[in-house]
Amino acid sequence: MDELEAHAVVVRADALNLLGRYDEALRLVSPILADNSTHLPSGVAAAVSLLHLRRDDEAVTLLSRLAGAHPNSPDAVRLLSLAAVRRGDSAAAVAHAARAVELAPAALDVHLQYSVALAAAQRRADAVASARLALEIDPDSAAAHLAMADALLLGDLTEHPGDLALAEQHIRQILAADPNHAPAHNALGRVSSAKGEIFAAISSISRAVAADPRQDVLVANVVALLARIILMTYFGFCALWWIDLGAVIGGEDGKPVLVGVAVAVIAAVVAPWLRLRRVTPLGVPHLLRDFRRRDPAWVAWAGVAAAAGALLAVLPLTSIEVTRVLFAVAGGLLAFVLVAFGLRVKAARRHARSSHTIGP
């Protein structure tokens, strides 16, 4: 295959990558790499496919070979930086991205990757500066505005109170030009989450999932937000259990309190469900299916909490002797859930993947 034919193949592979058809793109360029393992354009296209297919080790091997054969090309080191971010090696990510900037200081994509790498290293000021350079190169670039928003959302936002609003401005500029921009909706959800507006966050990230269901991080963020709603409901159950305590001790005289608590338990479950129906374009059953598929441990945790809530709801219907037994069981379940939740949060924080993710 001559260079002209190879170029045509790579153009087709690049188009397939943009469409998300990564397996096809990889198959298309593989014969070129079989003949010439350091062919740069086909190697870069193959690496992009491999990274999207989560075949990171193969991508790194290929990119390292390309970087060695083409030391003055920024593409291989830029993608090596991306792979390092995925692996959690922020030092390598920054080093590779800095090298890409040296090789192509006027290229938008290298400054974008440098900002991403610096953000992964929690170097907030440097990440903002790199995103600002990207915006100077192309003020209309959605990726540059998104990089700036991601950098501004790093760290303790109480130390930078104006940056949350500034990040939102950059995100809304993207959405004004492209209302279906999935990463921008995801970023807007992170802004809402940082403000404590959980249902607004779910609305934004649900729109992101609807626009691009291939992005696993979007589903993960919806699941994290649903978990927060379940957690708030759980703490509500705990408060209601303590309110019931005096009523259970008081015997029959406490029945009106038990009835009031039962009504509150039902409201604590129904109200979030109704609000979710209003804010998400995906539909609540779809969200719950993703929740069950993505994190069955949270589903089990939520099930135990729901069982405790159900016991509190039926207490007014039972005799005082049975009420005391069910009340004790509900307390035990709530205590178990609290311990399980603590262990779950520790695990989730250990495995947090990127600045694009909403934490527990």
Give an account of the 3D structure.
The protein is mainly α and 360 residues long. Helix content is 79%, strand content 0%. The protein contains 17 helices and no strands. The chain has helices at 3-18, 22-35, 40-52, 56-69, 74-87, 90-103, 108-120, 124-137, 142-152, 163-177, 182-194, 198-211, 216-249, 255-279, 284-294, 296-314, 320-350. Helix 13 crosses helix 15 (284-294). The radius of gyration is 26 Å and the shape is elongated.
DSSP helical segment count:
17
Secondary-structure element string: HHHHHHHHHHHHHHHHH
Q: Tell me the structural class.
A: mainly alpha
Shape by Cα distribution: elongated
Mean pLDDT: 85
Low confidence ranges: 350-355
Strand residue percentage: under 5%
Intertermini distance: 52 Å
Radius of gyration: 26 Å
* Number of strand elements: 0
Main pleated-sheet profile: none
Roughly how much helix do the residues carry, as a percent range?
Answer: over 70%
Q: Topology, pairings included?
A:
Blueprint (H helix, E strand, L loop, with lengths): L2 H16 L3 H14 L4 H13 L3 H14 L4 H14 L2 H14 L4 H13 L3 H14 L4 H11 L10 H15 L4 H13 L3 H14 L4 H34 L5 H25 L4 H11 L1 H19 L5 H31 L10
Question: What are the key terms here?
Answer:
360 residues, mainly alpha, 79% helix, elongated
